[in-house]
């Protein structure tokens, strides 16, 4: 007996919509994955009904998208072969009944028996289509960001904590002539000279040590020339806030540095020229004699200096234009502000002893306004105007303060404190509004640059992350709902009293979905030919008035309150949603006293009948319910309906068990139950009248303990085969020992039994005493057998006489002509071989046919038809072998054809040749060899049938399929045909 265990271990449900539980057929055969059980809300995901699955109209593999089917199957096979108890599928696509594609997350539990053989599976399936769409959108956003990085002139790179490259952009690949897939996993020392790589590593470690952004200039060898880069490096954080690497953005400023140097040189030359002019004026009186020469010299010096300065300023202007173009064309909102006065204000505060700027600004909030007044916006790009919906730059510059919200003012305070404390950069999320009033979430990034002129410039970047934050918020809410759904499911699976869990369930889903009220109504028949409803349970959010004591809700008539539409929807197993803007006057009179702005009702069905409904009220907003919330609420209704159905089923089962027990105790037949090991767990009192034992004497024993030893062994083998496949059985006869020692014949019928989860728990059946019937049958069988033997002997005798008469007629025509002799002889031989068999059967009272006796009679008959000598030989002691009478005629015809074939193809110069027919045998076979002089045709192939001739072909075709085989071969001019017969043709081995 098999002892199986399908206890479901902890299931981690981590996606959006719990929708389907399925149980494939027992065993590890995964073909098509037929479904044995689905939850009532299966149509939410697949569009098919429960009946579609149970009837076999739909099988699971038909719904999996063809592109994913092989992978999903391999995941099941690999997990099964690996001995796992459960596993998660990678998300895959299914085809909805309406033809649309849905994405599923599937957690599968593998159920094995104690032999570690797979009996079935439990699958928990979640609809993550919305999540996948969001994920694809985020991936698209990442691709868009990567596109920007790959098209910027700056080089962008990321390294891990050990300095190994994680990512580089296209500019890095182009400038340093490397490929991204080759550089990942290498360090600066694999690309740059030792000295430069050491400096880069030191700068990276500074970022990690101080955990903040730094800006510095770095020298890099590029195309055998030394280039100057301005680099911004900052730490990278994972989703838990832990630093996992460094990111760098470096821009080649070699040309700009050269132009700055040229400008400085030009200024120095100009100063020298001015000094020279001054000296010239001071010494003018002393140089009158050389006036012309001096003026010419000075003119040349001034002209050279002026030309050099013009060239330098032109280059600087061109560089400025390039940077301005990059600023204007950036897809990110950018602007810069002059912080010079703000930093001067910080210095003033420090001079009067203020160093704790957080405390200072917290205690003097008006000083923040003063800080705002000290900041001047210098420039703004088009992306910023578009983001903030400003008509032009003047509108933006004049009204920048109008975009602040309460949140952004808080962020602004943190920004001022950061810069007052000496930080050169600031980053934070902020909530702002556009000039049209639209609320946005931005990622505020500010970088401070202190110019040599003493000015302090702040560059602002504000990417719009509104959609990303909304998606994150939705995903978090969906995850929260999913966790609540999983908890509700687990609680109801582990309780047998749904009332104990319903209040907790209403509270949990109410808090999770931010609902004002959650409640349960039960239906009961009304006098108006439709159902009425009464409130059974209620949960209310804090501050919301409870309605459980409202008498109107204890006999609620939907038709009287204008809810006939919603009544019909509930009867059709559809959800109902009612919002304040749609209230009729009658509905308003009922709902407004309860402060209901939006109401959602979900039906509870048991056995295709409306048991009641659960409802959810929003008393704060006129709510729009999203698909995830509706799916979660419908799932809760499904769980509660399942619990109600289980309770009713258990009550019905208890009543049925009581009726069954009464019936069992009053019948003469013995009714029993046994566990998977074949041990009786129940047996009816009627066993005492049947076998002399009391019920309590047999509990704990097996049926085989009550049987004689040989009978027990025989029946146990039969039952083992039946029970291993969980098959029902009928009419299994078995012999038992009565308590006083006499034998009792029983007839047993049984069926396997399973618990509510489909686990095999044993057999239930009934035994009936058939001793008197068996005795009567035995007497009838003996009499019938005697009559049958006499009848068979008579029939065989008459057939033999008729065949012999036919042989006599054939012999009378043997001399009709030489051309007919051979044909007539063959016919005589064949008919005589058949007559021999019937003659043997008619002469034996037990209808036994001995093989040797049959061959001897055939040889004797054929010897009369030929001039050749037929020599029958055998060993000293030849055992007698009985052959199966049903196959005797066919076997006799085969022997006849083999001997006739030897006669026809006899080839010997000496006419006195003979055909040798020889018997030999072993412990489990007897062989007949027929040898005659002759030759086989060149094309002869016994197995393929080539060259056999009519006789051998006929013998081969008539040979019984089981227990007989023969072979034909030639040895030195002798053809030998060897016939070997064994069981089941031989029946007394």
Walk me through the topology.
Elements: E1 4-5, E2 18-22, H1 43-46, H2 50-54, H3 60-63, H4 66-81, E3 86-88, E4 92-95, E5 101-113, E6 118-127, H5 129-151, E7 155-160, E8 165-168, H6 170-176, H7 180-183, H8 194-210, E9 214-222, E10 225-237, E11 243-252, H9 254-282, H10 291-329, E12 334-338, H11 340-351, H12 357-363, H13 366-373, E13 376-380, H14 382-387, H15 393-398, H16 406-420, E14 425-433, E15 439-450, E16 456-461, H17 466-493, H18 498-512, E17 517-525, E18 531-540, H19 564-571, E19 576-579, H20 585-591, E20 598-606, E21 609-618, H21 627-666, E22 670-674, E23 680-683, H22 687-691, H23 695-698, H24 709-724, E24 729-737, E25 743-754, E26 760-769, H25 771-812, H26 818-843, H27 851-863, E27 869-873, H28 888-904, E28 914-921, E29 925-933, H29 949-958, E30 964-971, E31 974-982
Parallel strand pairs: 27-28
Antiparallel strand pairs: 1-5, 2-6, 3-5, 4-5, 5-6, 7-8, 7-11, 9-10, 10-11, 12-13, 12-16, 14-15, 15-16, 17-18, 17-21, 19-20, 20-21, 22-23, 22-26, 24-25, 25-26, 28-29, 29-31, 30-31
């Amino acid at each position: 007996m098999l002892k199986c265990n399908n206890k479901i271990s902890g299931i981690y449900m981590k996606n959006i919509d719990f929708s389907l539980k399925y149980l494939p057929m027992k065993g590890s055969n995964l073909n098509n994955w037929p479904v044995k059980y689905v939850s009532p809300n299966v149509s939410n995901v697949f569009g098919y009904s429960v009946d579609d699955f149970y009837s076999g109209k739909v099988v699971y593999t038909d719904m999996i998208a063809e592109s994913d089917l092989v992978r999903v199957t391999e995941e099941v096979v690999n997990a099964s072969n690996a001995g796992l108890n459960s596993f998660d599928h990678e998300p895959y696509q299914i085809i909805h009944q309406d033809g649309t594609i849905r994405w599923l997350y599937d957690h599968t539990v593998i159920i094995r028996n104690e032999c570690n053989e797979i009996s079935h599976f439990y699958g928990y399936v979640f609809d993550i289509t919305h999540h996948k769409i969001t994920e694809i959108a985020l991936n698209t956003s990442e691709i868009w960001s990567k596109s920007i990085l790959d098209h910027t002139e700056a080089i962008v790179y990321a390294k891990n904590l050990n300095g190994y490259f994680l990512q580089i952009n296209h500019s890095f690949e182009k400038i340093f002539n490397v490929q991204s897939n080759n550089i990942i996993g290498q360090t600066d020392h694999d690309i740059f000279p030792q000295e430069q790589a050491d400096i880069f590593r030191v700068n990276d470690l500074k970022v990690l040590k101080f955990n903040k952004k730094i800006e510095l200039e770095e020298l890099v060898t590029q195309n055998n020339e030394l280039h100057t880069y301005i680099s911004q490096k900052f730490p990278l954080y994972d989703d838990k806030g832990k630093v996992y690497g460094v990111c760098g953005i470096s821009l080649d400023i070699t040309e700009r540095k050269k132009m700055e140097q040229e400008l400085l040189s030009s200024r120095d030359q100009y100063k020298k020229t001015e000094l020279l002019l001054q000296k010239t004026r001071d010494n003018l009186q002393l140089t009158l004699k050389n006036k012309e020469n001096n003026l010419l010299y000075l003119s040349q010096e001034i002209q050279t200096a002026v030309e050099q300065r013009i060239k330098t300023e032109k280059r600087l202007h061109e560089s400025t234009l390039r940077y301005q173009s990059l600023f204007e064309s950036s897809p990110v909102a950018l602007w810069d502000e002059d912080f010079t006065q703000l930093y001067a204000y910080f210095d003033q505060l420090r001079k009067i002893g203020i160093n704790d700027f957080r405390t200072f600004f917290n205690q003097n909030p008006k000083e923040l306004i003063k800080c705002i007044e000290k900041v001047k916006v210098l420039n703004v790009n088009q992306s910023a105007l578009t983001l903030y919906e400003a008509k032009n730059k003047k509108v933006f510059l004049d009204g920048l303060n109008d975009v602040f919200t309460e949140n952004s003012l808080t962020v602004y305070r943190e920004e001022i404190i950061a810069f007052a404390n000496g930080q050169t950069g600031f980053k934070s999320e902020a909530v702002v509004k556009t000039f049209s009033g639209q609320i946005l979430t931005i990622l505020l990034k500010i970088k401070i640059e202190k110019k040599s002129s003493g000015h302090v410039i702040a560059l602002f970047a504000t990417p719009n992350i509104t959609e990303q934050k909304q998606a994150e918020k939705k995903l978090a809410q969906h995850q929260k709902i999913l966790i609540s759904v999983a908890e509700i499911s687990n609680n109801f699976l582990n309780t047998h009293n749904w009332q104990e869990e319903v209040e907790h369930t209403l509270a949990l889903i109410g808090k999770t979905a931010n609902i004002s009220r959650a409640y349960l109504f039960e239906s009961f028949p009304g006098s108006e030919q439709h159902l009425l409803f009464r409130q059974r349970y209620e949960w209310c959010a804090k501050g919301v008035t409870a309605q459980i004591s409202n008498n109107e809700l204890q006999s609620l008539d939907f038709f009287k309150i204008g809810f006939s539409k919603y009544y019909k929807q509930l009867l059709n197993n559809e959800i109902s949603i009612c919002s304040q803007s749609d209230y009729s006057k009658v509905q308003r009179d009922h709902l407004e006293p309860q402060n209901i702005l939006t109401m959602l009702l979900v039906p509870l069905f048991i056995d295709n009948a409306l048991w009641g409904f659960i409802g959810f009220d929003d008393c704060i907003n006129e709510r729009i319910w999203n698909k995830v919330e509706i799916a979660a609420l419908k799932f809760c209704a499904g769980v509660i309906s399942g619990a109600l159905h289980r309770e009713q089923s258990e009550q019905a089962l208890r009543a049925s068990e009581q009726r069954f027990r009464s019936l069992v105790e009053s019948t003469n037949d013995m009714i029993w139950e046994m566990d998977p090991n074949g041990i009786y767990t129940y047996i009816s009192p009627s066993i005492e009248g049947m076998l002399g034992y009391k019920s309590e004497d047999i509990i704990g024993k097996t049926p085989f303990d009550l049987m004689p030893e040989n009978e027990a062994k025989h029946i146990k083998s039969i039952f083992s085969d039946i029970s291993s496949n969980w098959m029902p059985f009928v009419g299994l006869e078995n012999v038992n020992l009565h308590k006083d020692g006499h034998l009792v014949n029983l007839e047993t019928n049984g069926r396997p039994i399973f618990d509510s989860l489909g686990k095999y728990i044993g057999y239930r059946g009934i035994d009936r005493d058939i001793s008197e019937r068996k005795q009567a049958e035995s007497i009838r069988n003996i009499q019938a057998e005697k009559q049958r033997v006499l009848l068979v002997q008579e029939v065989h005798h008459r057939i033999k006489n008729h065949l012999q008469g036919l042989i006599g007629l054939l012999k009378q025509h043997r001399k009709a002509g030489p051309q007919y002799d051979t044909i007539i002889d063959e016919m005589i031989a064949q008919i005589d071989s058949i007559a021999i068999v019937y003659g043997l059967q008619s002469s034996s009272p037990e209808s036994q046919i001995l093989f040797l006796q049959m061959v001897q009679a055939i040889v004797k008959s054929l010897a009369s038809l030929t001039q050749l000598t037929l020599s029958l030989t055998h060993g000293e002691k030849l055992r007698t072998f009985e052959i199966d009478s049903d196959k005797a005629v066919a076997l006799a015809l085969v022997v006849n054809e083999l001997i006739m074939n030897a006669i026809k193809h006899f080839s010997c110069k000496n006419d006195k040749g003979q055909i040798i027919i020889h018997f030999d045998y072993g412990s489990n076979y007897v062989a007949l060899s027929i040898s005659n002089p002759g030759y086989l045709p060149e094309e002869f192939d016994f197995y393929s049938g080539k060259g056999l001739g009519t006789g051998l072909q006929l013998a081969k075709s008539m040979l019984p399929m089981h227990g007989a085989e023969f072979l034909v071969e030639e040895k030195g001019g002798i053809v030998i045909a060897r016939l070997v017969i064994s069981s089941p043709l031989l029946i007394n081995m």
